[in-house]
Amino acid sequence: MQLISGTEELKIFCQRAGKFDFITIDTEFHRETTYWPILCLVQVATSDEAVLIDPMAKDIDLSPLLELLANEKIVKVFHAARQDIEIFVKMTGTVPSPVFDSQIAASVCGYGDSISYDKLVQAIVGAQVDKSSRFTDWAARPLTEKQMAYALADVTHLRDIYLELSKQLKKLNRVSWMQDEQQPLTSLSTYIMEPKDAWVRLKSKVNRPRDLAMLKELAALREQKAQESDRPRRRVLKDDALYELAIQRPKSQKDFDRFRAVPKGFGNSRLAQEIIALTKKVENIPDTELPPMPKRRMGPSPKGPIGDLLRVLVKAVAEREGVASRIIANSNDIDELVLSDNADIAAMSGWRFELFGKKALALKHGKLGLAASPEGIVEIEIDNPKS
Fold first, then answer.
1. In the chain, what is the straight-line distance between the N-terminal and C-terminal CA atoms, in Å?
2. Residue 24 pairs with which residues in a beta bridge?
3. What is the Cα–Cα distance from 260 to 247, expressed in whole angstroms?
4. With 35 labelled, which of 88, 205, 381, 386 sits at a CA distance of 20 to 30 A?
5. What is the pLDDT of residues 333-377, one digit of tens each?
6. DSSP for 309-367?
7. Are 284 and 255 in contact (CB under 8 A)?
8. In this structure, how many other beta carbons lie within 10 angstroms of the beta carbon of residue 110?
9. Which residues of the chain are modeled with pLDDT < 50?
10. Is the CB of residue 356 less than 8 Å from the CB of residue 314?
11. Structure confidence at residue 203 (pLDDT)
12. pTM score, whole prediction
């Protein structure tokens, strides 16, 4: 097993790898105590070799690897790529291109939703992956032979998986499906969280515009502090604390003593003073400038019988087409479709509309029925639906 720990050695390998149409790549990292992932190991394979790259080696320069990832003539093959790509976006400010995510490709080809790497290896390659090293300390040196063997298996089997899934995508005429599903992976905004947008990821538990304004400010402050100090968000403030502070809006140091979600003595901290300043800022916002509350859903309940029927339909279509149902329409999509025939969801355009959206509208308006059969759920056209 080749462990590259020097820049010149890495440069020579990357020159060889640059001659191939694709490379497979994986990373090992830690982020339990940090905001940004700590890169501990990089695994890369070409058609005829596989290496381990030690990013923690003294004085190693990863520039040759980053240049390889930026080469648009080479497909970069990952499995469940999001966190791996996030690491390289942090290092370069750009997304590697083009990429191929075998987990997404597998869901499009009918291997199930979010299939794990070891199960995909078993299904396509017929091999077993030793998972015992998965949660070892990848930052410790030296790496053991067992660790390195495990790490290499993450990219060597991936070569055969990529070739097989590529063949299946073409045979099934689903290359465009795969490209649609991969769009979030290619967007820089997927990996960069702007503090002002941090509130979006929260499951809002506030009911008044001024509370929402405070929640937005608190989420932005927490995100900024987490990034600056390289700490997980929860180590700055937990989500429950954000909700409580947004509603109670402390005006003095003593106010923090009555809050359950912040640690004892928090009122003495510099962060507490910043939160008090946010309270003053939010209290001074005119009513006409407060953020609007999310609109309440109108119409039939997404969790009612219409939603139930649409969920049966999407599952039946997915099973017939041999594709994960989430690829066609997820639970939120179904909810939106119950509420509006013009829902702004992927299932209402392109290939998804032809497979499911058109039928979903017909089912919703009584022009299509569902029935059980020995072969599964079948669709029945209704000529004269009752109004």
1. 70
2. 45, 77
3. 13
4. 205
5. 999 999 999 999 999 999 999 999 999 999 999 999 999 999 889
6. HHHHHHHHHHHHHTS-HHHH--HHHHHHHHH-TT--SGGGSHHHIIIIIHHHHHHHTTS
7. no
8. 16
9. none
10. yes
11. 83
12. 0.90
Residue 160 CA to residue 99 CA, distance in Å, equals 16
The DSSP-derived string for 14-74 is HHHHTTSSEEEEEEEEE-SS-SS-EEEEEEEE-SS-EEEE-TTSTT---HHHHHHHH-TTS
Q: Look up residue 45 and give its two tokens.
A: 């394979």
Q: How confident is the prediction for the chain on average, in pLDDT? A: 94
Q: In order of start, what are the domains of the chain with their CATH numbers?
A: 2-190 (3.30.420.10), 195-289 (1.10.150.80), 305-381 (1.10.150)
Beta bridge partners of 360: none
CB atoms within 10 A of CB 118: 17
pLDDT attached to residue 160: 98
Residue 204: predicted pLDDT: 76
Strand-pairing partners, residue 53, are 4, 42
Rounded to 5 degrees, φ, ψ at 115 are -65, 140
pLDDT of residue 301: 66
Angle at 371 between CA 370 and CA 373, to 5 degrees: 140
Question: CA torsion sign, 156 to 86 to 231 to 222?
Answer: negative
DSSP 3-state of 75: strand
Return the amino acid letter for 275.
I
Which runs of consecutive H residues, i.e. helices, occur in 62-174? 63-70, 82-92, 102-108, 117-124, 145-171
What integer pLDDT is reported at residue 289 of this predicted model? 97
Residue 71 contacts residue 18 (beta carbons within 8 Å): yes
The reported pLDDT for the residue numbered 294 is: 79
